[in-house]
Design brief:
The complex is a heterodimer. Chain A is an alpha/beta fold. Chain A has ten helices and ten strands. The longest helix of chain A has 17 residues. By secondary structure, chain B is of the alpha/beta class. The model of chain B has no long low-confidence stretch (mean pLDDT 94). Classes of the chains: A alpha/beta, B alpha/beta.
Chain lengths: 293, 128
């Protein structure tokens, strides 16, 4: 890939998805787009860039954006956040919401479903503690293709062996030939919706827990700040925000504060006003309309 | 250094598994069937067994039963690694004392995930 091609793709992705690649992400582009180029019968990245600039490329534009914004994901990814969910977040919520007996959870980068289904399995494993509770998990993602997969809950043999203990596979999945489908009972726990984080998401309502992992790393600083500030308005004053291992709010916003000794776990900084606070500074997000929709 | 016994009648599979496990800092020994594996275990029990199911002389399931009855034989973590990929086999393995189960084909990520799952390696290492 030539520097010109790389710069073109950087700008292209910024304009179409808000994805902000740093100057050294050539490997990421190659690993995601080379297979796509080959599938489209193109010789490589160079020809792909040419095609993107030509007329009638809208289907290709969508594929490129989806390929670049889809994260590798697997069940119970990184494990630690799910331990926090079981050992810190849910015990606190079960106590705090004992009156209304309901919990709302948002997976803001739900991707192909492994994360929301991992949360659903964790909740199931809590058993009697949640009997009679109304549990709502909303999984959103930018990509329609990815959402369809999440909704179906069908995974390859390879996918169900990443991060998923064998007992959980046996308990919560049904084997159909070479694939495994998550049980209807767990599928029914999750609502899947298409959503671009750069757009307004106030209509989703407020949540007790927001998982927003490994998606903000792709955005530039101003966009991150803007998203954090808007997330703060969607989380209950005593709720939780869970970020990816390589992500933090520190130095970006004071709307959330990290929990000591709970890596990746944050709480709204001012519980009395968090859910009602207007956005702080934060520049308007970059243009983020998905092409071809 | 933790030890892992790789039991598989395919020398190619043993070689691939050895390379992966050595990368995860295991000391690896190999056996080509359940009977040879049992001899190894009678001398010294490993920390982990990566175990094929279908093998000549003695299959993996029968081996596991014998090994579990050795003094201290409840200690090693047994991770099946087999082309038997149906629910009936998995359920049989788990009720017979297996700790985890890998359906072939496998790669480094799957082995690392499964070994982390049963506490043989730290979780962080599985993400490398």
């Amino acid at each position: 890939m030539t520097p010109t091609e790389y710069e073109y793709l950087r700008k292209f992705l910024r304009d179409h998805s808000g994805l902000d690649l740093s100057a050294d992400k050539q490997y990421l582009i190659e690993s995601r787009l080379l297979p796509l180029a080959r599938k489209a019968g193109l010789s490589g990245i160079g020809e792909l860039v040419q095609k993107l600039q030509g007329a009638g490329a809208s289907a290709l534009v969508t594929s490129v954006v989806e390929a670049m914004t889809t994260n590798e994901t697997f069940f119970f990814r990184d494990k630690v956040p799910f331990d926090h969910f079981r050992d810190t977040i849910m015990p606190e919520i079960i106590k705090a919401r004992a009156g209304r007996r309901s919990v709302r959870i948002w997976c803001a980068a739900g991707s192909t479903g492994q994360e929301p289904y991992s949360l659903a399995m964790s909740l199931k494993e809590m058993g009697a503690a949640l009997t009679g509770w109304r549990v709502e998990i909303i999984a959103t993602d930018l990509s329609q293709e990815v959402l369809e997969k999440a909704k179906a809950g069908i995974y390859s043999q390879f996918e169900v062996q990443r991060g998923l203990p064998i007992q959980m596979l046996m308990k919560y999945f049904k084997q159909t030939g070479e694939t495994w489908q998550i049980n209807p009972e767990l599928r029914a726990m999750i609502q899947h919706r298409q959503l671009n984080l750069l757009h307004d998401f106030a209509q989703l309502g407020t949540f007790d827990v927001i998982f927003c992992r490994n998606v903000l790393i792709y955005f530039d600083q101003d966009t991150k700040i803007n998203i954090f500030n808007r997330l703060a308005r969607q989380v209950e004053g005593d709720g939780f925000l869970v970020l990816g291992a390589a992500e933090t709010v520190v130095g970006l916003t004071d709307t959330f504060k990290p929990l000591p000794e709970r890596r990746g776990l944050y709480k709204p900084n001012d519980p009395r006003t968090a859910a009602a606070k207007p956005a702080l500074a934060g520049a308007a997000p970059r243009v983020a309309v998905m092409a071809g929709r | 250094m933790k030890t892992c016994l790789v039991v598989d009648d395919s020398s190619v599979v043993r070689k691939i598994a050895r390379r992966i496990l050595e990368g995860l800092e295991f000391e690896v020994t190999e056996a080509e069937d359940g009977s040879k594996a049992l001899e190894v275990c009678q001398r010294q029990l490993p920390d982990a067994v990566l175990l094929d199911w279908n093998m000549p002389v003695m299959d993996g399931f029968e081996f596991m039963g014998h090994m579990r009855r050795l003094p201290g034989g409840d200690q090693p973590k047994v991770v099946f690694c087999t082309t038997e990929n149906n629910v009936a086999h998995i359920a049989q393995a788990l009720s017979g004392g297996a700790n985890e189960y890998i359906m072939k084909p496998f790669d480094k990520d799957i082995i690392a995930d499964k070994f982390a799952e049963v506490g043989l390696i730290p979780v962080g290492q599985a993400m490398v």
